[in-house]
Recover the amino acids of this structure.
């Protein structure tokens, strides 16, 4: 009996220590959809001051826990999850994405982030899941018709610039272009000769989201250049976990949907014979030429992209992407080709206190242009009874209207097929841009952050315009003392470089004071734009007539 009493007394004395014993819990927080760890998740004990955040690998450690404590894991864009502590040593918590919260988040609006409901102006955000599908040669087409108040009007030439208007134009004489901010780097809307637009060098496959600041309140962040609105473009970053490789290949067929309704050769002859003068009737030919069919054709566009994303050494998120697009135009002898390479490094150091984003991009472009208005206008108005070619023509074998002395008259249109084939407009471009962003949350005062952003954008282009010595475009009826008429071919080359340097350095202090929130920012911004160009011209000549 004494042994039983001793055991009961021992258990009775041990009971209070068991009830009040404090333990340590280690765990990991994962994305339920992907199974990948989530860094920066707040893990707190309800009703207490005990809390922490997950590290880069999504792991956390809580001490001084009591049995029955409720532990909550919360993160912006995810539904919070609560578990009970019952003495377990390890735990795995999975979080679901919260679509409603995600819609409320706007990233990198000016000098920081803001929830949509807290923004003073009108803000819209569209992510990769909502982009337009299909072959998107330039980024503008991703958001065409997808954001209210934002109109995107594209050009017909391959790789052509699209006009983006936010809530309509605001000026008759000044620029109506919005300010483009690419990964924190404000871009200039100027492009060098031979390039199509500032966005044509970006592979749409590398873009994660567009954020559009629609009204003039954006000027409070970016100044007067934001009066036409701001488009903030965020590219894709490295991801956690193992390396994933994605490859996409698209082929599209480009055709002319409709042509201008004009008379065919028989209808034109009937009209001239019925209404024309004898001199006009004498000029009629015997051919049946559809000039619009001669300048347009069906073209195939190919778009290929391969990317690899993951973590190096399980610590360094990285993404590498290579893409190529080849876009011949439906107007013959026009084309746009682009090859891009991009890399992104996104390490998080010092227990999530230092976040680093490094982006580097390289783009090569090749363009072939035509004087679209002159060529297409000529095809619409040119005589359908004339053939494309003429035997014995001194203009490269092409038919051209000639005057009484076999000189070129000024008023008639020129042969549109000859213009396509006897004029070369080509250009190549190289663009290098990138930036680095350091976001440091002070250890001794976590409400205070220091942010430094530095970026550079260099855009180089060179090209030439060449007209054949047999082309009517180079013909100049200039009489020399010898009585000879000379046709001058024309060759003009150019080189142009644009450079944009940017530096931001600022402190940001945020503090929740009950129902009030204190958000203060102070810093320095520097941006410099540089331009350099050269032009050369050469004249070749060919004797046409003695």
């Amino acid at each position: 009996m004494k042994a039983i009493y001793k055991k009961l007394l021992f258990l009775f004395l041990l009971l209070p220590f068991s009830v009040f014993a404090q333990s340590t819990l280690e765990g990991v927080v994962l994305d339920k959809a992907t199974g990948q760890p989530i860094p920066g998740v707040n893990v707190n004990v309800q009703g207490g001051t005990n809390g922490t955040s997950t590290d880069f690998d999504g792991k956390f450690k809580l001490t001084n826990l009591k049995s029955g404590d409720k532990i909550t894991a919360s993160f912006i864009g995810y539904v919070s999850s609560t578990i009970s502590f019952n003495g377990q040593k390890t735990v795995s918590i999975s979080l679901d994405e919260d679509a409603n919260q995600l819609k409320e988040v706007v990233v990198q609006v000016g000098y920081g982030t803001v929830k949509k409901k807290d923004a003073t102006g009108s803000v819209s955000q569209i992510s990769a899941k909502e982009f337009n599908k299909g072959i998107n040669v330039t980024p503008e087409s991703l958001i065409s018709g997808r954001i209210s108040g934002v109109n995107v009007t594209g050009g017909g030439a391959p790789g052509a610039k699209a006009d983006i208007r936010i809530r309509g134009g605001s000026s008759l004489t000044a620029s109506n272009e919005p300010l483009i901010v690419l990964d924190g780097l404000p871009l200039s809307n100027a492009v060098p000769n031979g390039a199509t637009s500032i966005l044509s060098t970006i592979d749409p496959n590398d873009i994660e989201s567009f954020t559009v600041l629609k009204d003039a309140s954006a000027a409070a962040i970016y100044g007067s250049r934001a009066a036409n609105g701001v488009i903030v473009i965020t590219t894709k970053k490295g991801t956690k976990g193992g390396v994933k490789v994605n490859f996409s290949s698209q082929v599209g067929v480009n055709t002319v949907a409709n042509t201008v309704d004009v008379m065919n050769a028989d209808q034109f002859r009937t009209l001239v014979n019925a209404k024309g003068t004898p001199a006009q009737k004498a000029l009629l030919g015997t051919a049946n030429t559809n000039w619009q069919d001669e300048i347009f054709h069906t073209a195939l566009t190919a778009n290929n992209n391969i990317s690899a994303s993951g973590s190096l050494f399980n610590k360094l998120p990285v993404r590498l992407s290579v893409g190529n697009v080849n876009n011949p135009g439906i107007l013959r002898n026009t084309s746009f080709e682009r090859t891009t390479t991009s890399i992104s490094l996104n390490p998080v150091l010092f227990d999530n206190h230092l976040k680093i984003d490094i982006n580097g991009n390289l783009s090569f472009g090749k363009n072939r242009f035509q004087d679209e208005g002159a060529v297409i206008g000529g095809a619409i108005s040119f005589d359908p009874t004339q053939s494309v070619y003429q035997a014995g023509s001194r203009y490269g074998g092409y038919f051209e209207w000639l005057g009484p002395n076999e000189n070129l008259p000024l008023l008639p249109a020129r042969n549109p097929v000859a213009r396509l084939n006897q004029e070369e407009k080509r250009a190549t471009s190289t663009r290098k841009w990138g930036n680095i962003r350091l976001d440091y949350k002070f250890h001794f005062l976590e409400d205070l952050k220091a942010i430094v952003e530095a970026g550079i954008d260099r855009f180089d282009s060179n090209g030439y315009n060449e007209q054949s010595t047999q082309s009517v475009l180079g013909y100049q009826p200039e009489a020399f003392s010898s009585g000879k008429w000379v046709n001058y071919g024309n060759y003009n080359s150019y080189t142009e470089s644009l450079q944009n340097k940017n530096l931001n350095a600022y402190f940001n202090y945020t503090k929740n004071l009950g129902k009030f929130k204190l958000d203060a920012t102070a810093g320095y911004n520097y941006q410099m734009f540089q331009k350099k160009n050269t032009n050369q011209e050469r004249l070749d000549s060919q004797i046409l007539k003695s």
